[in-house]
Amino acid sequence: MEFLAQFLPIVLYIAVIALVVVLIVFVLRAIETLNRVNHLADDVSHKLTTLNGIFDCIDIVTDKVSMISDTLINTVATVIGKVFKRKRKEIDEENGEEE
Questions:
Q1: What is the mean predicted confidence (pLDDT) over 33-58?
Q2: Predicted confidence band at 99 (pLDDT cuts at 50, 70, 90)?
Q3: How many CA atoms lie within 13 A of 69 on its CB side?
Q4: How far from 99 is each of 5, 13, 82, CA to CA, in Å?
């Protein structure tokens, strides 16, 4: 019994020391992993910032093309409307003369 009373605390101390060493190793590896993830996130952020300029340029070009096409479609619709209005007037005038 006396042997166990002296031997058991030594075994427990060795186990605690081993556990602390293992935890230190895990924490160091976790810190390395977090540093890599941080570097990766910074790299992705930088690349997205670079692409932001391209997307802004594409957005401006799309807006201009949309504006031009809207103006063109409006002009064509106005011209077609005037042609049909003129033909309606001519048809109405012809119908009015015949009556």
A1: 93
A2: very low
A3: 6
A4: 129, 119, 26
